Fold these 3 entries.
Entry 1:
Amino acid sequence: MKGPRNDGPSLDLAELLEAAERFAVAAGTLTLKHFGALLAAEAKSDGSPVTIADREAERYLRSRIRTAFPTHTILGEEFGEEAGSAPVRWILDPIDGTRGFMRGVPLYGVLIGIEVEGEAAVGVAHFPPLGETVSAANGLGCRWMVRGASEARPARVSEVTGLSDAAVLVTDPRVALSPSLGEGWKRLAAQVDLARGWGDAYGHLLVATGRAEIMVDPILAPWDAAPFLPILREAGGRFTDFSGVETIHGGRGVSSNGHLHAEVLALLNPAG
């Protein structure tokens, strides 16, 4: 492992991206030790579950980051924020999709996003059981690594330009049918070719790799969203909140192939 670096003004996004990829894959290996077993879970203050695997993976990530980049800030879902002096913040979700993980569903992910001077600059989404990783840094493109492949390939969104040919995904249909979003979701789902619930981070992966066109995420914490703004941007698509702002802090998110983004937002928000 590399020793601590000098976090001066010339931050190297390629170095941050490479480190985030390594850390995510290693943390994912830790989660696989628990995957498929019946795990006890505790309820957090928001009612969501947390397991020993979530905590073990986040502790591991924090240790690797703190060793390699000792002046960086770290924000994680399970253990909050540790402030640093450099203008860099790592945002961690050790297991995105804990409920599915607990049921043996192989679509959970290890998510790492990195903000530089407040801008989402690096994103890594690693899916341990699938052996897939999508990662990007601003200006460096988006790459898709698949277990068994000799090298990464470029990740690109699809070129679909009509909703009637599009696949739309959603994290949880029950949330999408809530009073605040239900009518907009019904309008959108009625116009697409395929509507499915391949949710959590995996839906955003499918959009970034051209296998779906739209992912609607009605409830997003920063650690849920952190990798996807740079990933979708560098893959040729878009990631915004429901008002069209490119942010990981909007509380809601839409990934798309870009061609359909404005039309999707108009259907979800008919009043503007």
Note: The chain has a mean pLDDT of 91.
Entry 2:
Amino acid sequence: KYRTTAVLYPSGGFGRVSEALAGVVKDRGGEVLTGHRVDRIATEPGPSGGGFRATGVVVEGNEIKADSVICTIPVFHLPPLFDDGVIAAHKDFFDRAEEGSNASSRLALLICGGRQVLFDKPRNTWVFVPRSQLEEFGEYFLISELDSSQGVAPPGKQILTCATLVEGKAPDLREFRVKMERELKRLFPKLDLAQADWITAQYFPVVDGIARTIDWYGETRIGPATPVKNFFVAGDTTREYSTGTDGCANSAYLAAGQVLGRTLVRIEDVF
């Protein structure tokens, strides 16, 4: 609804994605709840002992009935949302879901906003820096540089994001920031991060989003249907055929198609 740019960013930032979704739901007579925690997925035994089926969600102690439930959190976070009996009945599915954490790419980023540019003007795309050009990091850099023409940064300013993979446990973000700023200064001598309006360092795992593995790509992923009847999955860790926002989008088409019982988009015609 808000996507007007040529790159994988909605105009106005990623917050507009959830705003657009909420708008579509409300336009069709639905209700949107935000700022609430889902305690668990409500289930009941299927007919003739055939496993379980989802009947809704329990939100802060109150059950909301639903004919279908679609979950978009990473699949390895699913087990705590289900009762032990459901997990035992569908053990193979939940074991596979938990394996997703082992396929996660651990991503650390430095993000800053201001009048900083890497070159003479913003590239409005990704810049790849190979390992051979780095002194303090063992993995390559992916740098995104976007200005106001993409609807992301305010007029006259840029958003600069530099991402790299990290091994093992989460890094000390203060130490990471110092090293990253030092490496960027060496790579781009004209870059003056001291003049940035703001700088932040972030860390999070992305399932197979950067370092792809055969075991967690395309049809080898989970979903959109699950052995728990009426329960579906979409998003970063589920069956999709791209990465980032594109991957999440086509996983959503697949999940919606399963719920509605019809093909919305033939993914094989696109990829």
Note: Confidence is low (pLDDT under 50) at residues 1-7.
Entry 3:
Amino acid sequence: MNRRQFLAATAASGVVASTGVAGDLPLPKLKKAVKFSMINLKGATTWDKFDLVKKLGFEGVEIDSPSGVNRLAAARASQDTGVKIHGVIDNIHWTFPLSSPDPKVRAEGLAALEGALEEAKLYDATTVLLVPGVVNKTVSYEQCWDRSRVEVKKAIPLAEKLGVKIAIECVWNNFITKPEQMVEYVDSFQTPAVGAYMDCSNMIKFGVPSADWIRKLGKRMLKFDFKGYSKAKGWVGIGEGDENWPDILKACAEVGYHTWATAELGSCGEKELAETAAKMDKILQLK
């Protein structure tokens, strides 16, 4: 399969004040969420964690699969507190990549993806985040593309049956580093059961501003992560990176994205979670 060549644009930087409108469009009122694995409370039960993030103003969480968390306990806590498990993260994709030259490894990866889809259905989550493969010394870009597509296609019938979408994420795996590549990859499946998971910080490394990714992905964008990355300093706090959040929000409004913004940080206690909620409220203009 031929690859197109891409010109890199310069990443926009800074968080600046916004008027609350994106051109003639009102800014999207996104829903705040956190990765469940971020919540670090000594001695806390699953229910306690859901209750805390509810009190801090988060409306949802995204949970790993597998995670060690009791699925029924998580489902009950979600129901009791009203904090929605909006997505599931296939966290086996690094250990058993769908791009592996070993068919046994790919089979393990496919089984994990299918298990994550089933878990998402249990929670009434709408997406499963997937890193489809890794390009390295033993796997070329073309091999990653072809092998991962074969395996993802095997999971599509289950995804369509369950009503859960497979969301392909752009990460530092040397695969899909330009928005045109993501568009081509997602569209190659020819089904709405496969879309894109935007990380507004990961792609800064690759030179194309996050808002440009969003505009090019359009309705293909199913979810997005929220953190901070600076090309000069590396990983930084939310609001301290090179993300141009006003333009990101404008782009979300333009493509009609009005759902989840999920914080992806390290281990956080109550104080750090409260600070994260406050920063997200300010940047997303939720209060």
Note: The longest helix spans residues 141-162.
